[in-house]
Amino acid sequence: MINVFQPTTGDEELAAVSEVFASNWLGHGPRTKEFEERFAAHLGVDPGHVLFINSATSGLFLATELLGIGPGDEVVMPSASFVAAGNAVASTGARLVFCDVDERTMNPTVAHIEQALTPDTTAVLILHYGGHPGDVAAIARLCRERGIRLIEDAACAVASKVDGVACGTFGDVAMWSFDAMKVLVTGDGGMLYVRDPELALRAKRLAYHGLEQSSGFSAARVSHRWWELNVKDFGRRIVGNDIAAAIGLVQLARLPEFVARRRAIGDLYGQLLADVDGVVLPPEPPEGQTSSHYFYWVQLEPEIRDQVAADLLEEGIYTTFRYPPLHKVPAYGSDHAELPGTEASSENTLLLPLHQGLDDEEVRKVAAVLRKSVEYRSASARSRRVR
């Protein structure tokens, strides 16, 4: 099976994990700190604002708590987003206000965000679809002007930038995902960024039971009764560990080669599919923007999209669609929203396999099967319409 997502790991990651085992310190420790420091350098921010956690989903829930989002508040977010973001907001009792996205880029424009704002808007939560930055710089300016908090779900954007500024650092809080399907993987895990220094300190407490100190061992050097508890907040345990961090350190060093390979695969798809009638290729990011190339998506006639996906699966090629519209989820109570860009893209978009482990022959196979299927299914659809 040619998978749509797949991690790239090997001997370097195994060696790093072996070193952790040999150290006999498996939990939140020195490698976690080093990973935070190196990822902060990758972002261009102070490491005191960065925290390695057990998942980006935990980061989304923590973000709503840090920003005090709750009943009476409204949070604007694109409907084309991951369910974890919707759950994080809905669980607070705040009202989700879904905005539309551009049908081609799958990202909201600043105009989409502005149209959804109300006097009760407390925060905006955006996703960088497929690693493309979108209008994040303009959206961040709008939020600052209106006194609204900005949360960046940068799960797809580990190497994405706008004019040299890392996605995830434009807003107030951001999180990156390192799960087994991402560009940089640690098995499970994520990184949290908090702009405000006081909120960053509170995030660290909330991520470890609300305790002022992260371990009794470290407190033993400064307190004669280091086992006593100093609870500042009612937190939980969502910190990362040294096993995952050791993998992350290796993966972070390999990240430039991963992104370069993914870019090359996207370019090859573009060359192979450029002349296929009925296949719309993804737009290139505008000048000054760089993508993490997490997704490669094509857009087809809605009446054949699902059939094409089935044809590809029959040939051992797994494709998918992300993300199903959240405003259609009954639990969120928002199915009355009219979001034409979101609804159109949810019916015509298909994600092709994209991961750095793909070789050129596999890419050529995907393109060839896609071409054949689209040509056949399009002809059949035309024939049915004529009859």
UniProtKB/TrEMBL annotation:
<dbReference type="GO" id="GO:0030170">
    <property type="term" value="F:pyridoxal phosphate binding"/>
</dbReference>
<dbReference type="InterPro" id="IPR000653">
    <property type="entry name" value="DegT/StrS_aminotransferase"/>
</dbReference>
<feature type="active site" description="Proton acceptor">
    <location>
        <position position="182"/>
    </location>
</feature>
<comment type="similarity">
    <text>Belongs to the DegT/DnrJ/EryC1 family. L-glutamine:2-deoxy-scyllo-inosose/scyllo-inosose aminotransferase subfamily.</text>
</comment>
<dbReference type="InterPro" id="IPR015421">
    <property type="entry name" value="PyrdxlP-dep_Trfase_major"/>
</dbReference>
<protein>
    <submittedName>
        <fullName>Glutamine--scyllo-inositol aminotransferase</fullName>
    </submittedName>
</protein>
<keyword id="KW-0808">Transferase</keyword>
<feature type="modified residue" description="N6-(pyridoxal phosphate)lysine">
    <location>
        <position position="182"/>
    </location>
</feature>
<dbReference type="InterPro" id="IPR015422">
    <property type="entry name" value="PyrdxlP-dep_Trfase_small"/>
</dbReference>
<keyword id="KW-0663">Pyridoxal phosphate</keyword>
<keyword id="KW-0032">Aminotransferase</keyword>
<dbReference type="Pfam" id="PF01041">
    <property type="entry name" value="DegT_DnrJ_EryC1"/>
</dbReference>
<dbReference type="GO" id="GO:0000271">
    <property type="term" value="P:polysaccharide biosynthetic process"/>
</dbReference>
<dbReference type="GO" id="GO:0008483">
    <property type="term" value="F:transaminase activity"/>
</dbReference>
<dbReference type="InterPro" id="IPR015424">
    <property type="entry name" value="PyrdxlP-dep_Trfase"/>
</dbReference>
